[in-house]
Amino acid sequence: MRIPHVAPIVSIRHVFRAFWPHMQGYRRYLVIGICVAVFAAGCEVVAIWLFGRITDEVLAKQDLGAFWAPAILWLGLAVVAGIAAFIGGWLTALAGERFLLRLRDHVYDHMQKLSPDYFENRRLGDLMARLTDDIEAIEELVASGLVRLVTVLISIVFFAGAAFYIRWDLALITVLLVPSFLFVSKLFASRFRSAAGRERLSNGSMNSVVEESLSNQALVQSYNRQQTEAVRLHKVGRTWMTAKLSEARLAVGYGPVVQVLETICLLVIIGVGAWQIVQGRLTIGGLIAFAAYLGYLYPTIQNLGQIALTVSEAGAGADRVIEVLKSKPSVADKPGAIEIGRGQGRVEFANVCFTYDGRANATLTDLSFAVGPGDVLVCTGPSGSGKSTMAKLLLRFYDPAEGSITIDGHDLRDLTLRSLRENITVLHQESLLFSGTVRENIAYGRPGATLEEIVEAAIVADAHEFIEELPQGYETPMGQRGRLVSGGQRQRVAIARALLRDAPILILDEPMTGLDPAGAARVMTPLRRLMDGRTTILITHDLRLVPHSTHTIVFGTAGEEVPLSVNGHHEPLPLADTACGCKDHRRHRTTVEAHRLA
Ligand SMILES: Nc1ncnc2c1ncn2[C@@H]1O[C@H](COP(=O)(O)OP(=O)(O)OP(=O)(O)O)[C@@H](O)[C@H]1O
């Protein structure tokens, strides 16, 4: 398990360069959103000016007749500004949510191209957090954050401009104090960024613990490990809480610091303003309007600081998503890779060697064999000797370090991954099912299959009978990972799915694991039907369950040489040999070497 770490911090400019292209098509919404928000800010500027006029013309002169015109104009502006703010907010939300949807799809697409070892080396909960919370944080930066930022900047110009218009000398004092705001914001933002990075990381860890623990509840409860799991969650929860509190301390600390700065400014302005009124250079309405502009200007500047904090938080999420997007699949289609459609299913390994990254010893050394339609290649040997690795190489989850693997004469590296995998069906140790209905699970083998085809596959897989007895027949939900039905029933549903898929090559990885002899025998009949006419690679420890074999490979362990028999079968396989239905072993002659355990 890779130790989780805080993703490398990338600059905000880099974040925009990475994600702004995903905003294509929605940018006009943002532009309209900004324009409308700016218009609303302009309305506020005029409203404050009207307030000043009411003070001077109505209140100071005690002339009620002068009240109505500015009052009606003010009300009209408030309504128009309200409508504008609604439209702006809605368009921004629309652009933000669509961007979010598109970005999540993009990151998920990329994730699905990464090789299985990427997922084996990471915690699922953490990856889930990257797909949800972290992507939302990016939206807050690239869509709504951008609109807020531009709107705030333009509003500052408006309010400061209006303040200058009323009294340039007072406004100058105000502006001179702005750098102190920016300095404080910068100080807080950099600290917030590192706290946000820790928060994102521990959020991922928390998700991982919940995901692992809830998906293994049967194990947790049967081993009475509820307390351990609760402690585990509490521990990561505490780390998250500490990071969150650091963020909160900075966020709530920022407000009061700025408030004090604001108060200093306001007192200076009122003092200078009062002196100017005494001098007769400023009216009371003018000072009130000026103070009102400051009342808008300072919160707007404060908002700017808040945006800087949000941007810091979003940047921390963006770092983690960028890290995913930068990960490259260990295998990919080469330029000009070909599609082969449904092949015959001849498989050949020629002197294949393979070592996992970070492992000192080779897992497979000089593995060679050739099998074709109708053949059953039984792969057996001790645990960890490389049987499943061979299947992974055939599926091209990895490329061999040396040697070649071909299907119908095509090197796997020359085929598109899609067309290669269309030719192979894998039946795993534990039937991998989804939480959908029985029908959906069988149809997973061939999207678009009709109900008749699904039922036909289920009949051949000997699953129809039990499916009919389920409460809603084919529409019965199978529960999380298909756990609402028995292991044998799950396996028969998986066989029906494989039958529907109809690929020429079949990999059976311990298909009887977890089944009692009666259950195994029940599965064996449909399995034989599935194997009929296909090239089957059967990985098993239990040779008693091998129906018949035409070829056998015994994978060795470190330092142990496994003797080969004349027909390519290893000595310690009496059952497989006796059960072999092949008339001409020489035709299926297999070259097999002992393999080393990594
Ligand atoms: N993703 C991986 N990264 C590094 N090493 C791995 C990885 N997967 C498997 N191995 C190692 O490669 C060796 C072969 O593993 P493999 O799963 O192929 O064995 P196996 O013969 O199928 O075992 P079993 O019968 O127990 O399923 C083992 O030592 C294992 O630890």
UniProtKB/TrEMBL annotation:
GO terms for cellular component: plasma membrane. It is found in: Cell inner membrane. InterPro entries: AAA+_ATPase (IPR003593), ABC1_TM_dom (IPR011527), ABC1_TM_sf (IPR036640), ABC_transporter-like_ATP-bd (IPR003439), ABC_transporter-like_CS (IPR017871), P-loop_NTPase (IPR027417), Type_1_exporter (IPR039421). PROSITE patterns: ABC_TM1F, ABC_TRANSPORTER_1, ABC_TRANSPORTER_2. It is a multi-pass membrane protein. The chain crosses the membrane at residues 29-51, 71-94, 146-166, 172-189, 251-275, 281-298. It holds the Pfam family ABC_membrane. One of its GO terms (molecular function) is ATP hydrolysis activity. The keyword rRNA-binding does not apply. Residues 31-313 form the ABC transmembrane type-1 domain. Residues 347-583 form the ABC transporter domain. Keywords: ATP-binding, Cell inner membrane, Cell membrane, Membrane, Nucleotide-binding, Transmembrane, Transmembrane helix, Transport. Belongs to the ABC transporter superfamily. Siderophore-Fe(3+) uptake transporter (SIUT) (TC 3.A.1.21) family. This is ABC transporter permease. It comes from Sinosporangium siamense.
